[in-house]
Design goal:
Elements: E1 8-14, E2 22-27, E3 32-35, H1 52-71, E4 74-77, H2 99-106, E5 110-113, H3 122-133, E6 141-144, E7 149-152, E8 155-159, E9 163-164, E10 174-175, E11 178-182, E12 185-190, H4 199-207, E13 212-216, H5 229-245, E14 248-252, H6 261-273, E15 278-280, H7 282-285, H8 297-303, H9 308-314, H10 318-323
Parallel strand pairs: 3-4, 4-5, 5-6, 12-13, 13-14, 14-15
Antiparallel strand pairs: 1-2, 2-3, 7-8, 8-11, 9-10, 11-12
């Protein structure tokens, strides 16, 4: 983190920090903004449910989200996947959430949300409506953010029109990007654009000329399965353009679910180095080692077999499992 800048950026929860999320706290001299205050675990990878170490990570990251929510005046929701917002129901199995946790995060805040009635698939419309009727009613103010600009002193927080969640026409719907400007400084938050894959989204990112961009990378772990190789190639090509234009780029999220992510990212890293620009994961930006727990889940089960009590818990129905916290002795080493 460049301490000489007026805009301070603190990655809170990301795949490189052991969980599914892109939650980031951004602070200017005027206002504190918590971007996408959600966190999740992948239900099944390599045939295994989340490992106990993943539960340690999600508990730690959830506690950090609550802590930074206390500091923030504004909380944003770019779209309604649970790794990007916190629902108001109990789920200890995958989202480490409850109504009490959701209220701690959103109560008394100005919450700037993606319009769930427009450019939204059925799932997102339903989740957005539920959020408005639950945690949203505890917000100090709940505002549709799509394409809008909000001013706080010398800080301008702007939101893009909806852009595709990945490839054009994606079944996953749309997201909104966030631009935070303070005087001549600019930070851009582009969650789940998956590269981006779409040329129009790339043009929008470049046109903002941020000093720092936080980008959701492509889901290379789904290549040839739910994501075609052409889309992955487009994402890598567009990321090479981004890092040539933007001095510091944090690339994380979907791509860090792949243990071989570095092989895909090496051309992007090389393109940045050729311009004396920098590419980080969220963990690297914080000066930490990458903690790719989901990508290493199979190995974790082999090298650190969970105790029988945890295995029994993991085999009960998902409905019951959400209501019963996992039987784990949590440490404080994350």
């Amino acid at each position: 983190m460049d301490k000489s800048r007026e805009i301070k950026v603190f990655p809170i929860a990301f795949e490189s920090l052991g969980v599914r999320s892109m939650c980031t706290y951004v602070e200017t001299p005027d206002v504190g903004i918590l971007l996408d205050a959600g966190v999740s675990l992948g239900p099944v990878r390599f045939g295994f449910p989340p490992h106990p170490r993943e539960y340690e990570a999600i508990k730690s990251r959830r506690e950090a989200i609550i802590k930074f929510a206390e500091k923030a005046e504004i909380i944003t929701i770019s779209h309604y996947h649970f790794d990007h917002h916190t629902p108001s129901y109990t789920d200890w199995a995958y989202n480490w959430c409850s109504a009490e946790i959701a209220n701690k995060i959103y109560e008394g805040k100005m919450v700037l949300i993606k319009n769930y009635r427009d450019h939204a698939n059925f799932s997102q419309r339903r989740r957005g409506w539920i959020f408005e009727k639950t945690s949203g009613k505890y917000a100090k103010k709940l505002e549709i953010a799509d394409g809008r600009k909000f001013i706080f002193g010398n800080t301008v927080v702007s939101f893009s029109k909806p852009v595709f969640h990945g490839p054009e026409g994606s079944d996953l719907g749309w997201v909104i990007m966030t631009e935070i400007k303070y005087k001549d400084e600019c930070v851009l938050f582009a969650p789940d654009v998956q590269g981006p894959i779409v040329q129009e989204t790339l043009n929008m990112i470049i046109s903002k000329n941020p000093q720092l961009a936080i980008i959701g990378g492509p889901p290379t772990y789904l290549a040839g399965f739910r994501m075609n190789h052409k889309s992955i190639d487009s994402a890598i090509k567009n990321l090479k353009v981004i890092v040539k234009h933007i001095p510091i780029t944090i690339i994380d999220h979907h791509i860090l679910r792949d243990e071989n992510w570095k092989a895909f990212m090496q051309p992007v890293i090389d393109a940045a180095l050729n311009c004396n620009h920098k590419v980080f994961t969220a963990a690297e930006f914080l000066g930490r080692k990458n903690l790719l727990l989901e990508a290493q889940r199979r190995r974790l089960y082999e090298e650190e077999p969970p105790p029988s009590e945890f295995i029994r818990w993991s085999r009960i129905s998902s409905i019951r499992r959400k209501l019963i916290p996992p039987p784990i002795k949590f440490s404080n080493n994350l």
